[in-house]
Specification:
two-stranded antiparallel sheet
Length: about 140
């Protein structure tokens, strides 16, 4: 995930203390994302930490080309899943609450649908093409 952590301007004159009015990095990005998470919780207090993470990933503004599209069609080595979008994240948090869907989403399963086509209009068969995987599980050999 990427946040606006570069060349941030703080709205006041900081010349009388040890702070500067401009800065970059995680010291500026982390408080921004923390504030967005607080707004998401205010919109929907029932969200789990995993749901909040998935909402941030889902609503992020995509930046750069996917690094390994065969594994994840959105993740980029430089930008993660993209630039945090506070408005869309809070909006989706509220929509999940209004539709009573909080806790109903399997946050461990990832599904990326590339295309949908009706295979046979008479039978109503619909074909979904894409990739899916689960983030948590076990493998017995």
């Amino acid at each position: 995930m990427t946040s606006g952590g570069c060349n941030n301007f703080l709205g006041g004159d900081a010349s009388s203390n040890t702070y500067t009015s401009r800065g970059s990095g995680t010291s500026y990005a982390t408080p921004s994302v923390s504030g967005i998470l607080a707004l998401m919780i205010e919109a929907n207090e029932d969200l789990s930490p995993f749901e909040m993470k998935e909402i941030l990933k889902f609503t992020a503004e995509r930046k750069g080309e996917p690094t390994q599209p065969e594994v994840d069609p959105y993740w980029n080595r430089d930008f993660g899943w993209g630039l945090v979008d506070a408005y869309e994240a809070v909006k989706l948090s509220l929509e999940l609450k209004n539709q009573n869907l909080t806790g109903e989403i399997d946050v461990h399963t990832q599904v990326h649908i590339d295309s949908v086509e009706v295979d046979n209009p008479k039978s109503g068969l619909t074909v979904y093409n894409g990739i899916a995987w689960n983030q948590i599980g076990s493998l017995t050999l």
